[in-house]
Amino acid sequence: MMKDKIIFWLNADFTIFAVAREIQKKYNADFYAIVDITDKPKEFFINQKLIEFKKTWFYHDNINPNKKPDLEYLKSF
Q1: Neighbouring residues of 10: CB distance < 8 A, sequence distance ≥ 6
Q2: What secondary structure letter does DSSP report for 45?
Q3: 59 vs 33: CA distance, rounded Å
Q4: 52 DSSP 8-state letter
Q5: Which domain holds residue 25?
Q6: CA-CA distance, 31 to 4, in Å (whole number)?
Q7: Torsion, CA 11, CA 34, CA 31, CA 24, rounded to 10
Q8: Looking at the 3D structure of the chain, how many domains does it have?
Q9: Number of H helices and number of E strands within the chain?
Q10: CB atoms < 10 A from the CB of 54, how many?
């Protein structure tokens, strides 16, 4: 049987982080995170040991202001 997967969108408000920690204490699932913070507090999320995330993505690492959107791709849906 596969474990359930839960993804959390985390930001500078640590409320959701605290909720994720409590859920992980009580529920056996794979936890993932998208972290929407700037570089300075990023170190906390990289080094934290409170929640075991299978994978963590940093939203700001994937924003490229110089890249033009693919309008044809966006039109396709």
Answers
A1: 16, 17, 20, 33, 34, 35, 36, 37, 45
A2: H
A3: 10
A4: -
A5: 4-75
A6: 9
A7: 0
A8: 1
A9: 3, 3
A10: 13
Say what the pLDDT of residue 1 is. Answer: 82
Q: Is 21 exposed, middle or buried (CB count within 10 Å of its CB: 0-12, 13-18, 19+)?
A: middle
End-to-end alpha carbon distance in the chain: 34
- Strands (DSSP E) found in the chain: 4-10, 29-35, 53-58
**Residue 25, helix vs strand vs coil:** helix
> What is d(CA 65, CA 46) in angstroms, rounded to the nearest whole number?
24
The tens place of each residue's pLDDT in the chain, 77 residues long, gives: 889 999 999 999 999 999 999 999 999 999 999 999 988 889 999 999 999 999 999 998 877 777 787 889 888 87
Give the predicted TM-score (pTM) of the model.
0.77
